[in-house]
Specification:
The chain is an alpha/beta fold. It has two domains: 151 residues, ATPase, nucleotide binding domain (Nucleotidyltransferase, domain 5, 2-Layer Sandwich); 220 residues, ATPase, nucleotide binding domain (Nucleotidyltransferase, domain 5, 2-Layer Sandwich). Helix content is 36%, strand content 19%. The chain contains 15 helices and 14 strands. An eight-stranded mixed β-sheet has the order 5-4-3-2-1-6-8-7, sandwiched between helices. A six-stranded mixed β-sheet has the order 11-10-9-12-14-13, with helices on both faces. The longest helix has 27 residues. The termini are close together.
Length: 419
């Protein structure tokens, strides 16, 4: 069965094509084809790679995101990256949907009712849900008549206890849908399954902290394969410091800005989602790779002084160092909180772009948890091996790097729903 996965975001679209049959493999297979669009103004950069090693990259002027998506999908059956005879070979299309609201958590065949639920949740995730609805509409036009499946990022966190998902505001908020939903659930669910496989252990009794660290960042506390707490909340803005998102801040800052600077909700939304986080502090990038490179090139590796005077806004390397230190500080604090929720720790997992590739972040994050039995093997950590144990033999906690596999999880859910 050929399954197309569309992962539509506010500034990019990622897509994969899988060819699956029973029995499904335990380990994620390589897709036949992978495509990505990154949007900026009226430009679209399209990147393609096939399992045979063929690659394509082009930058186009496009009138709309629909036009760019159509051009991306056409490379499946035309040109040098062709892997299908025609669109008719595609039997199912799966979509990552960030928020399905309080009622849609399990994967679902998309019909009018499911679309209405996704649309109703646009207010909860405006940067994502509308893009996903647009992706569904394009797929219906380009690949008509095939089942489409929605896989909800919030679904894995449906097992959160009330103490974790209810906010300490008026209780009436809950009836309005204001609660902790949690996100990155598709990948956290994969981690809950993959970590026990790597360790050859049963998930029952296993306490896992899953660190999904990319442009968006979240942690999940996983016990017995189930999510019991997570750092993202009502929206993907809560929790850890991220690439361009602030993570948690004092809500009084927002009311202050509204009163003193007359900033609107739209301005604050843009400020917190697009101009904060690593980018807001470093000033030149929200990419952890560039921040670490600037630190190292400038020799800014000395520990920050607790009582140091404010950093000169023009000191690029010092601001990069501060951004790194803040990111790690918040990561450590949240890992500690998750360990407390779990009552201990058996496995610490790093996944997604930063988690899989930054030895510096992993080393800095793990250092203070030696008291809890976390010890890295420095040589293994430096190599950044994927789907591997990088903990020292003396470590009582296993530390793993696991490749994020959202597209595979979506494809697997599609297969299960339609066969």
């Amino acid at each position: 069965m050929k399954i197309l996965v569309l992962n539509s975001g506010s500034s990019s679209l990622k897509s994969s094509l899988y060819d699956l049959g029973a029995p499904l493999p335990q380990v994620a297979p390589d897709p036949l084809w992978q495509g990505e669009i990154e949007w900026s103004a009226n430009d679209a950069e399209i990147k393609i790679e096939t399992s045979g090693g063929t690659k394509s990259k082009q930058k186009l002027k496009v009138a709309s995101r629909e036009e760019a998506t159509r051009q991306l999908l056409a490379t499946l059956w035309t040109g040098t990256t062709r892997v299908l005879a025609s669109a008719k070979e595609i039997e199912v299309v799966g979509h990552r949907v960030v928020n399905g609201g309080p009622n849609h958590r399990e994967p679902a065949i998309i019909d009018a009712k499911v679309k209405a639920a996704i649309e109703a949740a646009v207010a909860f995730a405006p940067l994502h849900n509308q893009a996903e609805l647009d992706g569904i509409a394009v797929a219906e036009k380009v690949i008509p008549g095939v089942p489409q499946v929605a896989v909800f990022d919030t679904g894995f966190h449906r097992t959160l206890p009330a103490a974790a998902y209810v906010y300490p505001g008026p209780y009436e908020w809950l009836a309005k849908g204001i609660r902790r939903y949690g996100f990155h659930g598709i990948n956290h669910r994969y981690i809950a399954e993959r970590a026990p496989q790597i360790l050859q252990r049963d998930s029952r009794g296993l306490r896992i902290v899953s660190c999904h660290l990319g442009n968006g960042c979240s942690l999940a506390a996983i016990r017995d394969g189930l999510s019991v707490d997570t750092t993202m909340g009502f929206t993907p803005l809560e929790g850890l410091m991220m690439g361009t998102r602030s993570g948690s801040v004092d809500p009084g800052i927002l009311t202050y800005l509204m009163r003193q600077e007359k900033q609107t909700g739209e301005q604050l939304d843009d400020l917190l989602n697009k101009k904060s986080g690593l980018l807001g502090i470093a000033g030149f990038s929200g990419d952890m790779r560039e921040i670490i490179e600037e630190m190292k090139n400038a020799g800014a590796n000395a520990p920050a002084q607790d009582s140091a005077p404010p950093i000169d806004a023009g000191d690029k390397s010092a601001r990069a160092k501060l951004a790194f230190d803040m990111f790690v500080h918040r990561l450590r604090r949240e890992i500690g909180g998750m360990i407390a929720v779990l009552g201990g720790l058996d496995v610490l997992v790093f996944t997604a772009g930063i988690g899989e590739n930054s030895a510096d972040v992993r080393a800095a994050a793990c250092g203070p948890f030696a008291f809890a039995g976390v010890h890295l093997d420095a040589a293994k950590n430096a190599r950044s091996p994927v789907d591997a144990d990088i903990s020292a033999t003396s470590s009582t906690v296993r530390v793993l790097i696991i490749a994020a596999q959202e597209d595979w999880m979506i494809a697997r859910d599609c297969f299960g729903l339609t066969t």
